[in-house]
């Protein structure tokens, strides 16, 4: 489909024009999340470039390296009057001990445009969800968008991490994440696409981001990025044919995150208990060895 067809659809999308009206939603929140250094910020700049149809600008600052991520906040960027892109803070791994703040971001419980801190314990997570009651976030229709660089490849361990993570993101938001693969020209692309399909990903798009160094407009890049946005918003329109309740959805998200935080706290306590027992056993064994040596000497 031509860019000149897809771009106006995204620009002119209105929640009020959906089959059942807006049902209490005021905007669509495209929640970008994933590993650090995989192209979330560049994707935002590319989307703005395509949709605004003007000069390239670096709205979201791009990290110089994967080890020094630029996004430490949950930054928001208005794409249209009804669609906002959110550059959530990424993390180095997706294991269950490092994903609490990611889930809080996805659930829309952390304020936009504020610093995101890691390693929240159960009390922290509970406080976050309670504090969110004062925020007007019920009216956001949340769409999870997972950004992954094909250049990085994917190990079996990462597949295991991502399987649980993507499913939890689906549970929290009510939508299975759309996957956007950056670095479309990478030779790893077919392998990475196949692995995401095995993880049950249905909506998957491959793109090449525009950058400050390379922002010469090309039909192919524009079409790929426009198609990604077009299909995501088409899915939003489809989902809003159902009867929905924004406040009830927020309560469900809160419950899921609180249960997750509680389970994680219990698992940590169990690990600490096992570690303490192991240390005590080692110490006791050394004491017995010393006692035996004394008996021999006597």
Q: What is the tally of helical segments?
A: 8
Overall pLDDT confidence: 83
The best one-word shape is globular
Order of helices and strands: HEHEEHHEHEHEHH
Radius of gyration: 23 Å
In terms of structural class, how would the helical and strand content be classed?
A: alpha/beta
How far apart, in Å, are the first and last alpha carbons? 92 Å
Give an overview of the whole structure:
This protein is an alpha/beta fold. Helix content is 47%, strand content 11%. The protein has 8 helices and 6 strands, in the order αβαββααβαβαβαα. A 6-stranded mixed beta sheet has the order 2-3-1-4-5-6, with helices on both faces. α6 (189-198) links the parallel β5 and β6 (204-206). The longest helix is centred in the C-terminal third of the chain and has 52 residues, at 246-297. The relative contact order is 0.16.
List the helices and strands and how they pair.
Blueprint: H1 3-12, E1 27-33, H2 40-52, E2 75-78, E3 83-87, H3 100-106, H4 122-131, E4 140-149, H5 156-173, E5 178-182, H6 189-198, E6 204-206, H7 219-239, H8 246-297
Parallel strand pairs: 1-3, 1-4, 4-5, 5-6
Antiparallel strand pairs: 2-3
Helix pairs in contact: 1-7, 2-7, 4-8
